[in-house]
Amino acid sequence: MPLSLLLGIIAIVLYAGPVLAHKASDSYLALTARDGRIEGQWDVALRDLDYAIGLDADDDGAITWGELSGNREKVAGYVLPRLRLSAGGAPCPLKPTDYLVDNHTDGAYVVLRFAVECPAPGNAIDLSYTLFFDVDPQHRGLLRVDYQGATQTAVFSPAQTSQRIELGQTRQGAAFLQYLREGVWHIWTGYDHILFLLSLLLPAVLYRQGGAWQPVASFRPAFMEVVKVVTAFTVAHSITLSLATLGVISLPSRWVESAIAASVVLAALNNLRPLIDKRRWAVAFGFGLVHGLGFANVLNDLGLPRGALLLALVAFNLGVEIGQLAIVSVFLPSAYAVRRSSGYRRLCLNLGSGLISLLALVWLLERALDLKLING
Amino acid sequence: MTRGRVSQARSKPRWRWVRLPGLLAVWASLGLGPALQAAPFLPGSDGQVLERLPYSADPSARQSRALRKGLRAAPGNLDLAVKLALNDIKLGKAEADPRFYGYAQGVLSPWWAMPEPPPAILLPRALILQNRHDFDGALADLDKLLRLEPGNTQAWLARAVVLQVRGRYEEAQQSCLPLTELDELLVPVTCLSSVVSLTGQAAKSYELLLDALEHATGLSAEQRLWSFTVLAEIAARMGKDAEAERFFRQALEANGKDAYLLAAYADFLLDQRRPGEVLALLSDKTRVDSLLLRLGLAKRQLQASDLAETVASLQARFDAARMRGENLHQGDEARFALFLLDQPREALRLAQANWAAQREPKDARILLEAAIAAREPQAAQAVVDMLGKTGMEHVQLRRLAGRLGER
Question: Which residues of B touch A257 (CB under 8 A)?
Fold first, then answer.
C-alpha cells in the first residue's frame, strides 16, 4: 500500500469531530407570521456575545451552559432591544419565551425565542436592527420571514439597518416558471430527444403487412399508438429524472450521453429494418429511462435551488412534457394527412430514418470517444 | 447540440449506487439547508461546554484583550486603537478568521468613515479593505499614507502585495524597491522575487532568493515563513518539485499553522496526486473554508467514503456567505463547483467573476480549468493574453493553456 494512501486512511479514522468554520459574524433572525400572530427566533453566536458583553465568567476559554443560563437576563437585555418591530405605525413589543442553544457552521449560538405582539397588525412589518454593529461593523443580521408558505429574506448591515417586509408576497411562482421554461427549451433544443421520439412516431400512421408499410385507415389507431409511445417515454424519463435529481442514482454523463445517442441510432434503424413493430411503446420506455438521466444532467448543470428542489424538479419535468406535446401535436396531424403518399414512406420514413441514424452514429462516436466530429 | 451535455465526461466514472444513505444525507442538507440545521436544544447540565473560545491562550489574543481593556478605560485613544486594530488584523490573517477583521474595523469606527483620517488609521484601514477585496480603496489609503510618510516600509510592502494580487506586476515591483532601505536585505529580495518570478524571470528570482536565504542569519520565524513560502511557490511553478517540497517543509517548520501556506502546500500535494498527505495535513484545520475545500479535493482523489459530508459542509458554508450577500471566495467556490459538484458552467461563471477581482496564478488556473470543462475556451482568453504578456513561467498554467488551444 502506498504511504500516502495509508496516511489518508489513518486521517479518516482519526477525523471525527464537528467541522466548524471560521466565518464573519452573522445572526439568524427568523419570523413566522401565522393567523395574525408573529413568532420570532433569533440565533446569536456565543462568541460574538462573549466579545460584546463577556460570558466566560471564569476566563477559562470555555463557555458552559451554566455561564450562559446564569446570564439569561443580561443576554436578553442586551440582544432583544437591538431589534425593533412595528406594524401599522405602532411598535410591537417582543416578549421572550424560550432560551435554548443551537449549533451552526461556526459554533454554538444562543437561541432566543419570542412572541411579537402588534397592537395594529397590517400588511407589512417594519424592522430596525442594530445588534453588534458598534463592535463589529462586518456583522450581518440575516432575516428570514415565513408567511403562508412563502419565504422572504433580507440582510441587515450598518448601511441598511431597517427593512420593510410586505406580508403576502411570493416569489416561488417566478422560480417555477423559470424551470418550466428551461424544460421546454431543453426538449426543443435537444435534438437527440426529438429525433428519438420522431423515430418512434414516424411509423405511427402506418402499419406492417406482408413485409411492407401500409397507411392506417383511420385516425384512431395512429392516435393510440402515439399516446402509448409518448406516455411510456414520459413515465420512464420522469422516473430516472427524479431518481437522479434526488441523488439516488448517478451514472457518468459520458455513459449516459453515449447511450442516448445509441438509442436514437437503434430507434431509427428499427424503421428501416423493423425488428420491433408492435411494441414500440416498450422501446420508448426502456430508452426513456436513459433519456431521463440526460435530463437530470441538464437540470443539475442549471444549478438546483436550495430549499426548492422538488419545485424545480416538477417544473422542469412539466416543461419537458409541454415541449414534447407541442412537437407531437404538430407532427401527428401532418403525418396523418400525408400518410398515403409514397413520398411519406420513401422520404420521411426511409430517408429520414437513415439520416437520423447516421447523425446519431456521429454523436455516438463523439460522445463515446470524446471527439469533436461536427459542429452543432 | 444542447448546452453542457457532455461537459462532465472529463471526470472519472462515478458509480454510486451503493452509497444511498450518504447521498440522501447530502441531498437532504442541500435541499433543506439551514432548516435542517435548526434544531435548538436545552443543554443537559450546567457544566456542559457549549463553545470553546478560540486562541484564548494565544499570546496575540491575550495582547488584544489587554489592549481592549486599556481602550475601554481611555475611549477614543488613537494610539491604543491602532495598536489593537493591527493586533486583531494579525490574528485574523494568521488564523484566516474574518471575525477579527470585523473587530478591528469596530475599534477604528470613530475614524473609519473619515475621508482624511489621522495618518495612523490609514494602514490598518487599508489592510481591512484589502481583506474585504476592496483593492482600490486599500490602494487609495496606502498611496495617501505614502505621500505623507514616504519611508513607511510596511505601507510599501502592503502596497506591493495588493498590486501583485491585482496582477499589476510592474507597479508591484516598484513598490518593493523602497524596502531596500531596511537593514534586512531578505525583505526586499523576497518581495521582488515574489513579483518578478511571475514576469518571465522565475529562474533569476529563484536563484536570487535562494542566495539571500543562504546568507541570512538570525531570521525571525515570520520572515522564514514568508521567504520559504515564496521560494517554494516559485519552485513549484517552475516544475522543480523536489525543491518545492523541501522549501514548503522549511516554511512549515517556521509556522505550521499559517492558512495561506497550508493552502499552497495542499495545492502542491494535490497536483502531485498525494491526497493522503493532504488529509494528514489539514484534517484538524477545517475551520478555514479554503482548507476544508482542499481537504474535500483530497477526499475526492481518494474516493473517500465521507466525501459527501465534506461536500455538504462546504455547501453550507458557501450558502452562509451568500446569505450575507458576500462573494469573497468565488475562486474557491469555483473549484468547489467544478471538482466537487461537477457543475462546469457554474464554475466558469464564478471563476470569471473572481478573475475580475483577483489575478493571482491560482485565479488564472481555475478560470482555465473551468473554461476547458465547460467547453468555452474563449472565456479564458484573458488568461492566455496574460500569459503571453507577462511571460509567466508556470508548468500547470502553460499545460492548461495548451489544452485550451486544442479545443
Answer: 5-6, 9
**Residues of A numbered 87-116 whose beta carbons fall under 8 angstroms of chain B's beta carbons: which are they?**
98, 100-108, 111, 113
Task: State the best of B50, B97, B257 to mutate against chain A, taking most chain A CBs within 10 Å.
Answer: B50
State whether A21 and B304 contact (CB < 8 Å). no
Answer for the pair A265, A360: CB distance below 8 angstroms, yes or no. Answer: yes
Q: Looking at chain A from residue 275 to 314, which residues have their Cβ under 8 Å from any Cβ of chain B?
A: 294, 297-298, 300-301, 303-304, 306-307, 309-310
Contacts of A136 in chain B (CB under 8 A): 99, 102-103, 105-106
Cα–Cα nearest to B68, from A54, A62, A79: A54
* Contact residues for B15 (Cβ-Cβ < 8 A; gap 6+): A250, A251
Residue of chain A whose Cα is closest to the Cα of B274: A4
CB pairs under 8 A between A and B: 268
Could you tell me whether strands A26-34 and A140-147 are parallel, antiparallel, or unpaired per DSSP bridges?
Answer: parallel
Give how far Cα A57 sits from Cα of A67, A101, A136, A277, Å: 7, 18, 22, 82
Residue with C-alpha cell 489587554? B66
* CA pair distance B74, B208, nearest whole angstrom: 48
Please tell me which residue of chain A has the smallest CA distance to B305: A12
Looking at the partner chain, which of A136, A297, A303 has a beta carbon nearest the beta carbon of B106? A136
Specify the CATH number of the domain B182-256.
1.25.40
- Rounded to a whole number of angstroms, the distance between the first and last alpha carbons of chain B is 16
Predicted TM-score of the model (pTM): 0.66
First to last CA, chain A: 47
Q: What is the ipTM of this complex?
A: 0.79
> pLDDT 10s per residue in chain B (407 long)?
333 333 333 333 333 333 333 333 333 333 333 333 348 999 989 999 999 887 667 788 888 888 988 998 998 999 999 999 999 998 888 888 899 999 999 999 999 999 999 999 999 999 999 999 899 999 999 999 999 999 999 999 999 999 999 999 999 999 999 999 888 889 999 999 999 999 999 999 999 999 999 998 889 998 999 999 999 999 999 999 999 999 999 999 999 988 899 999 999 999 999 999 999 999 988 888 999 999 999 999 999 999 999 999 899 889 888 888 888 889 999 999 999 999 999 999 999 999 999 999 999 999 999 999 999 999 999 999 999 999 999 999 999 999 987 75
Integer Cα distance of B17 and A251 in angstroms = 9
- Which of B234, B243, B268 lies closest to B393 in space, CA to CA? B234
Chain B nearest-CA residue for A368 = B9
What's the grid cell of residue A307? 430549499
State how far the Cα of B334 lies from the Cα of B351, in Å rounded to an integer.
5
* Size of chain A in residues: 376
> What residues does each domain of chain A span?
24-170, 173-369
Domain B327-407 has CATH 2.60.40: no
Q: How many CA atoms lie within 13 A of A89 on its CB side?
A: 0
> Rounded to the nearest 5°, which phi and psi values hold at A169?
-90, 145
CA distance B92 to chain A (A): 10
Per the CB < 8 A criterion, the answer to whether A283 and A200 are in contact is: yes
Instruction: Write the class of the CATH domain B59-175.
Output: mainly alpha
Mark which residues 132-151 of A lie under 8 Å from B by CB. Answer: 134-140, 142
Whether the CB of A316 is below 8 Å from some CB of chain B: the reply is no
CATH 1.25.40.10 in chain B is located at 59-175
> Phi, psi (5° rounding) for residue B27?
-60, -45
